[in-house]
Amino acid sequence: MGGTGHSVFFLLYVLCVLWTLFEAESQKTSDCARWCPLNSRCVNATACRCSPGFTSLSGDIFTNLLENCDDINECGPPLAVSCGKFADCQNTEGSYHCECSPGYQLASGAKTFKNESENTCQDVDECSFRPPVCHNSTVCVNTVGSYRCRCRRGWELKPGFQNKQMNTTCQEMSFPAWTEPPGIKSQRLSNFFKKVQVLRRDFKPALAQDTIQNLITSVDELLEVPSDLDALALPERHKMATHLLSELERVLRTLAKAMPGASFTYRSPLNTELSLMIQEQGDGYTTIGQSHARMLLDWAVAAAARDSDPTVMGILSSWKMQKLLANASLELDPETKAKLKDLHQSPVRGAQYELLSAVNLVFLSNTNTEHLDSPVTFAFSHPMKTPGPRQGLVCAFWKSDDRGGGHWNTTGCWTRGTSNDSTTCQCSHLSSFAVLMAHYDIEDPKLALITKVGLALSLVCLLLCILTFLLVRPIQGSRTTVHLHLCICLFVGSAIFLAGIENEGGQVGLRCRLVAGLLHYCFLAAFCWMSLEGLELYFLVVRVFHGQGLSKCWLYLIGYGVPLLIVAISAAVRHEHYGRSLYCWLDPEDGFLWSFLGPVIFIVLFNAVIFVTTVWKLTQKFSEINPDMKKLKKARVLTITAVAQLFLLGSTWVFGLFLFNPHSWVLSYTFTVLNCLQGFFLFIFHCLLNKKVREEYRKWAGWVTGNRYSEFTTSSSNQTQAHRPSESGM
Ligand SMILES: *[C@@H]1O[C@H](CO)[C@@H](O)[C@H](O)[C@H]1NC(C)=O
Ligand SMILES: *[C@@H]1O[C@H](CO)[C@@H](O)[C@H](O)[C@H]1NC(C)=O
Ligand SMILES: *[C@@H]1O[C@H](CO)[C@@H](O)[C@H](O)[C@H]1NC(C)=O
Ligand SMILES: *[C@@H]1O[C@H](CO)[C@@H](O)[C@H](O)[C@H]1NC(C)=O
Ligand SMILES: *[C@@H]1O[C@H](CO)[C@@H](O)[C@H](O)[C@H]1NC(C)=O
Ligand SMILES: *[C@@H]1O[C@H](CO)[C@@H](O)[C@H](O)[C@H]1NC(C)=O
Ligand SMILES: *[C@@H]1O[C@H](CO)[C@@H](O)[C@H](O)[C@H]1NC(C)=O
C-alpha cells in the first residue's frame, strides 16, 4: 500500500507544480496593460511601446492613457531621408520609399527604392521610346518627362505654329525679301539687286553655303571702285550704307540658320571675311571670328529670348565698306568728352577721324541687342598707327538716324586697350563697329577768351554808337538812320552770338534752332543795311549829289523786310538745317549755308560796284573847273568810310566761312578778331572821327564833370583838330 501513497503524492506534487506554473502564467498575462492604442504594444502593466515607424508625443514608450502613436514622416525634418538626384521621397503609413521624379525611371525598371545609394534614376528618352510623333519636317527633342519637335536645319516655322511644341510643323526656309533703298540712282546698285533677286529665286536651304558666298561676292562687287556710287552725295551714301548694313544683317542671320555644321568661315577674294557659329545648344563664353575681328560673348546673350533654334552668331568684316561710311560725323559720348576735357584741360568740340579697321557687322539670333545683359568684347585688327597729340583710337558703332542716314557714335562702347595691330573694345549693345583714329577738336581756350572779351568790347562800342545816333541832334538824317540800324542789327546779332552760339553737342533743340535763325536774320539784316549805305552814297554822289535818297519806308522795307523774306523761305524749305550739334548756326549740308552766303556775296559785290562808280565819279568831279570842294571832300570821306566798313564786314564773313572748320585755326583767329573789332571800328568811323559827334561828346563830358573841365577839354581838342585838317565833318 505504501507504493500507491507515493504515487498519489507525486501526482499531487506535479499538479501542484503545474498549478504554480499556471498561476505564474496567469499572473504574467495580467501584467500587460490592456489600454495600448493602435500601432503600439504593451511593455508591462503600466507602459506601451509604439510600433516601428510610429511615435507618440512622449516618445516610443509611454504610460499616459491619452497618448496615441502617430506616423513618423521620414521625408520631412528632422529625419529628411535623402533619395538622391531626380528622385522624390514618399512617406507611407509607418514607412516611406523613394521614387524617380516624373520623366525619369530606375535603370532596373523597379518602381521604388529605399536608400540614396540605390538611386539609378535616369531620363526617359521619349523620342526613342515612342513611335515617331513629330512631323517629318521637324526633329524630336527629348525633354524631361516629355518631348518637343523643333524645325530641322534649313526649315522655318509654318505660319500659325509655334516652335518646340508637340504639333510643330515647318516649311523650307526662303531667302528673305530685300528691296532697293528708295531714292538712290545708281546702275551699280541696280545690278546688285538684280543679282540678289536671282540668288533669292534659286535659293535652296541645302545650298545656303553657296548662296552666302555668292552674296558676299556680290557685295564686294557693289563696293568695288571706281563706280557710279562715288558720285553720290554724302547723305545718300550714308543712307545706302545704313540700308546695306541692316539688310545684310537680317539676310545673313536667316541664311546662317540654314547652314549645316556648327561653324563656317569664308574669306572672299577681296578680303571680306564672314565667320559664323550655328549651334542648337551651348553655354558659357564663346569666341568667334577670324583675322579681321574676333568676338567674345556669353552664349545666353546670343540666344534669342523666344528660343527659335538654332542660335547663330556672326561677324562680317568688310574693308570695302569703309568707303561708304567715311566722311560721316563722329559723335563722342559725354563720358569720353569728360575724360578728354580732363586730359586736355579744355572742352572737346568734336572730332575728325580716319577709319582704321574694317567695318564689322555683328549679328546674333537675339535681335534685341540695344542693351545686352553682359557686354561683348571685340578685338579688331587694323594697321599699326600711333596716335599723335590730340588723337586717340576709339571704338565706334554706326548709328542710324530717323532720316535713314547715320553717323559714328561711341556711346556704350569702351576702348579697352590697343596693341600693335589690334584694338580691344567692349560694347553693351550690337551693331556695326569700326576702330577710328579720332583727331579731337579741342576748344582753344585763348580763342574762347578773345571771343568773349572782344565781343563784349564790341557790344559796348555798338551801344555807344546806337546812343550817339539816337541822341546827337546835329547828325540826324537818313544816313544816320542807316548807321543806327546797322549797329542795332550787329548789336543784337553779337549779343545772341555771345549768349547762345554754343550747343552742348548731340541734340539740336528748339533753342538752338531759334538762335541759328535769329543770327541768320540779324547778320543778313546788317548786310542789307550796309547795302543801303551804298545806295545812299550812290544817290548822294552820282545821281543828284545833293539828293535826299530813299524814303524811310523803303529803308525799313529793304533793311528788315528782305532778310525776313530770306529767312522765312529758308525756314519753310529746310527748317531742320538751322542749328548744328556743336554750333547754333546753319548746317552746311545740302548747300544750306548759301542762304546766308548768297545774299552776302551779292551785297558785297553790289556795294563794290557802287563804290567803284562813286570813286570814279568823284575823281571826275574833282577835275571839274569849278568844283564844290567842301561837298566833294565830304563825299570822299563818306566813300572811304563806307569802303572801309564794307571791307571790314565783308572780309569778316569771308573768314567766317571757315569758322566752323576746326582745321583752319589761323582763319578762326582772324575771324574772331575781326568780328570783335567790328563794333570798335564802327565807333571810330562814325563817332570818334565825326566832328559834330565829338563836339556833342564834349558837351556831355562838360555836364558830367563841370565847366572847368569842359573848357579845358574844348581847348585841347581844338588843338588836336588843328593838326588834322582833313577830318570829316558831316
Ligand atoms: C513598466 O515598464 C516601464 C518601462 O520599462 C518601467 O519604467 C516601469 O517601472 C514598469 N512598471 C512595472 C510595474 O514594472
Ligand atoms: C544607405 O546605404 C548606406 C550605404 O550603402 C548605409 O551606410 C546607410 O546606413 C543606408 N541608409 C539607410 C537609411 O538605410
Ligand atoms: C514628309 O512626309 C510627307 C508625306 O507624309 C512627304 O511627302 C514628305 O516628302 C516628307 N518630308 C520629308 C522632309 O521627309
Ligand atoms: C498646337 O498645340 C498647342 C497645344 O499644345 C495648341 O495650343 C495649338 O493650337 C496647336 N497648334 C496648331 C496649329 O494646331
Ligand atoms: C571725304 O573726306 C576726304 C578727306 O577728308 C576727302 O578727301 C574726300 O573728298 C571726302 N569725300 C567726300 C565724298 O566728301
Ligand atoms: C609690336 O611690334 C614690335 C615690332 O614692330 C614687336 O617687336 C613687338 O613684339 C610687337 N608687340 C606685340 C604685342 O605684338
Ligand atoms: C549715340 O547712341 C546712343 C545709344 O544708341 C544714343 O542714345 C545717342 O542718342 C546717340 N547719340 C547721337 C548723337 O545720336
TrEMBL record:
Q: How does it sit in the membrane?
A: Multi-pass membrane protein
Kindly give the Gene3D superfamilies that the UniProt entry links to this protein.
2.60.220.50, Laminin, Rhodopsin 7-helix transmembrane proteins
Give the similarity note.
Belongs to the G-protein coupled receptor 2 family. LN-TM7 subfamily.
Report which gene this protein is encoded by. ADGRE5
User: Which SUPFAM superfamilies does the annotation name?
Assistant: EGF/Laminin, Family A G protein-coupled receptor-like, Growth factor receptor domain
Q: Keyword check for Amino-acid biosynthesis, yes or no.
A: no
Top-rank taxon: Eukaryota
Q: Does the keyword Chaperone apply?
A: no
**Which residues span the membrane?**
453-472, 484-501, 513-532, 553-573, 593-616, 637-660, 666-689
UniProt GO MF annotations: calcium ion binding; G protein-coupled receptor activity
Natural source organism: Lynx canadensis
Q: Where is the EGF-like domain?
A: 71-110, 123-162
**The protein's name:** Adhesion G protein-coupled receptor E5
Record localization: Cell membrane; Secreted, Extracellular space
Q: What does this protein do?
A: Receptor potentially involved in both adhesion and signaling processes early after leukocyte activation. Plays an essential role in leukocyte migration.
- Alphabetical keyword list: Calcium, Cell adhesion, Cell membrane, Disulfide bond, EGF-like domain, G-protein coupled receptor, Glycoprotein, Membrane, Phosphoprotein, Receptor, Repeat, Secreted, Signal, Transducer, Transmembrane, Transmembrane helix
Q: Extract the signal peptide range.
A: 1-26
Task: Please state the protein's primary subcellular location.
Answer: membrane
Q: What InterPro entries does the record point to?
A: EGF, EGF-like_Ca-bd_dom, EGF-type_Asp/Asn_hydroxyl_site, EGF_Ca-bd_CS, GAIN_B, GAIN_dom_sf, GPCR_2-like_7TM, GPCR_2_ADGRE2_ADGRE5
Give start and end of each G-protein coupled receptors family 2 profile domain: 447-690
Example of a GO biological process term: cell surface receptor signaling pathway
